[in-house]
């Protein structure tokens, strides 16, 4: 598995993935060129303190994974910070498998496990990675658990998809 930084050349792929039903269910993201630029361009340009990566398996793009420091987005993450123990320097990740054919085969668990190792190498002061997941997305939180994350909290957080009730489970992996 390889993680490479996103480029603007990836935007049509991201739009396709975000528009697919299995991704759109949980990401609920606009897919216009303007929306993709708005939400992913800052990572490429360095104007946002986040890092977006295309996940490739055998040279084929299969998904997206991103990381950021939770406290860099404290205003947006206030509910998470109040719900769980979020130490300074803690990271969060978000991800999806864009190619439907790659789902259900353990790819998500491997992706999370390998990216977690990369995060700890790239961010040597990060004490932990904390990931909130809407509770109805069982595949996601089961992949986190299989990748060595522990459930540390449950509670209400603003939902990404307005059709969800906002109930989330929160997983954490501490630096080894």
Automatic annotation (TrEMBL):
<dbReference type="Pfam" id="PF13523">
    <property type="entry name" value="Acetyltransf_8"/>
</dbReference>
<feature type="domain" description="N-acetyltransferase">
    <location>
        <begin position="1"/>
        <end position="176"/>
    </location>
</feature>
<keyword id="KW-0046">Antibiotic resistance</keyword>
<dbReference type="InterPro" id="IPR016181">
    <property type="entry name" value="Acyl_CoA_acyltransferase"/>
</dbReference>
<protein>
    <submittedName>
        <fullName>Acetyltransferase</fullName>
    </submittedName>
</protein>
<dbReference type="InterPro" id="IPR000182">
    <property type="entry name" value="GNAT_dom"/>
</dbReference>
């Amino acid at each position: 598995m390889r993680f490479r930084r996103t480029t603007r050349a990836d935007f049509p792929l991201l739009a396709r993935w975000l528009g697919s039903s299995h991704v759109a269910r949980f990401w609920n993201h606009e897919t216009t060129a303007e929306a993709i630029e708005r939400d992913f361009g800052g990572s490429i340009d360095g104007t946002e303190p986040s890092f977006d990566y295309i996940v490739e398996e055998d040279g084929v793009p299969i998904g997206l994974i991103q990381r950021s420091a939770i406290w860099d987005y404290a205003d947006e993450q206030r509910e998470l910070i109040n719900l769980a123990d979020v130490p300074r320097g803690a990271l969060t990740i978000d991800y999806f498998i864009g190619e439907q054919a790659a789902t259900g085969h353990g790819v998500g668990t491997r992706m999370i496990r390998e990216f977690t190792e990369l995060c700890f190498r790239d961010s040597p002061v990060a004490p932990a990675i904390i990931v909130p997941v809407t509770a109805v997305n069982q595949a996601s939180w089961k992949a986190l658990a299989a990748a060595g994350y522990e459930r540390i909290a449950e509670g209400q957080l603003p939902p990404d998809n307005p059709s969800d009730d906002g109930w989330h489970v929160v997983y954490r992996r501490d630096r080894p």
